[in-house]
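Anyone able to model this chain together with adenosine-5'-diphosphate?
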Amino acid sequence: MKIKKIGVLTSGGDAPGMNATIRATVKSAIAKGMDTVGIYRGYNGLIKGDIRPLGMRDTTNIVQRGGTMLYSARCPEFKTEDGLKKAKQMCDKHNIDGLVVIGGDGSFRGAADLSAIGVPCIGLPGTIDNDISCTDYTIGYDTALNTAVGMVDKLCDTTTSHDRCSVVEVMGRHAGYIALNAGISCGASYIILPEHKFEKEDLFNRIRKATELGKNHFIIMVAEGIGNVTELAEEIEDVTGIESRATILGHVQRGGSPTVRDRVVGTRMGYYAIKLLSEGIGNRVVGLNRDVIVDYDIQEALNMTKKFPEDLYNIADELSY
Ligand code: ADP
Ligand code: F6P
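re: yes, here you go
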């Protein structure tokens, strides 16, 4: 089937580089003679019909911007049979015969559902968490990491000046990629993440031993969802006697101008999505493996598992004193 008109949407948590991806998608589609529309606020826009044409000049000056010009949202209604039906009707009404969905695993499930009822979709991995199994890299991860590291560097100045311990919580949903790489980049004394069982005694012993070796300031990097970092800081202070503070970096990690890596990967993936759709191929997720752009059947991609970089964790552990 020849695809004449494509839609693009961003779904789930926003990520820096989504705009670069939208720009590449729109420009590549137009270059191939397709009409393009933007669908606003994820699957909500598809259900409600918040759909507007996107021309060549509508993506001007967005490549360097964080966030997403199409806005993003979570849309519980889309998961229902009725919601999916409405979305399909809206595609028919607007003659959308191909869709690029930039988001995470949840968004890809929706893309698979739509593909199954006749709207070929391509999923592009956009999330700061880097938690999508079929790809080494997700759009937004590098910017978020650099933002986190920049903030922890600042925190480290004051932590050092006061001989304190800072317990820092970073994002990552259920994955520890940000915690691990930010931890290494900031010289953290300890990294707590979901992929490794955490024993408080081990942390306290590590701090005690490092103190004996002359260390007097500590960064403890914690992936979100592990527990309450304020309570952990209080416990560290009680047990070790080292004055401790907790910092939750929060949503600032999702913002900011995308790094070169996020702009380039987003651009490559957006271009590739249109290449697939122009060949009449749908129901695929795009990934980056060893710097090569690849694609998988959506269900196959969702069933994959990702190997956590144990070697990197072990290096961080050895260097933590
Ligand atoms: P992400 O795409 O970042 O993983 P979510 O899990 O919040 O984010 O999913 C984003 C949106 O994708 C949801 O609000 C919903 O509209 C859609 N979605 C999520 N899970 C499913 C599912 N199992 N089936 C269909 N659509 C889904
Ligand atoms: O998936 C991106 C992410 O920022 C996660 O790191 C975090 O767990 C979640 O989204 C936060 O979601 P919300 O913006 O709904 O608070």
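The mean pLDDT is 97.
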